Amino acid sequence: MDPVSTTDILIAGVGHALMGDDGLGPAVLKELEEGGLPSRVRLLDAGPAPQEILTELSGIKKLIVIDALTGVEPGSIVVKRFPAMLAIPGGEGAVSHGLGLVQMLCMARDLFPEIDILVIGAGIIPAAAPGFQLSDSLRQRIPALIALIREELHLTAQHS
Known about the structure:
With 160 residues, the protein is an alpha/beta fold.
């Protein structure tokens, strides 16, 4: 993407596609990309390392993180504006990868205090071994997650 771009919304998918339901973030990004997005939106597949998001935040006004979450009821959809993310059952136990999602978001807020941060995800039971695809039950949640993301983009456009 052109670094002089006017994108100010970053949608970051976190997860590992070869680890079952952990691949939720990249799966949602793929669906979003196929459906088209406003020109001010940029997608980032952060893979299994949420800290990769930190290098992409310059010039961003809104960050939407999509991730599969442990520490919440499997299958439940979670929408939290940060720092309300800390209120997820299990608190800071909602960890996605080596660096916890909450810890990464705290770093993002410290580095870029003006960014509006929203986390959209679903609870999972982590895969015990690599090689699994998303479960059917989680795949069925993707349209609802995309609808929530599009609603947030619509609200953002109205307030710009």
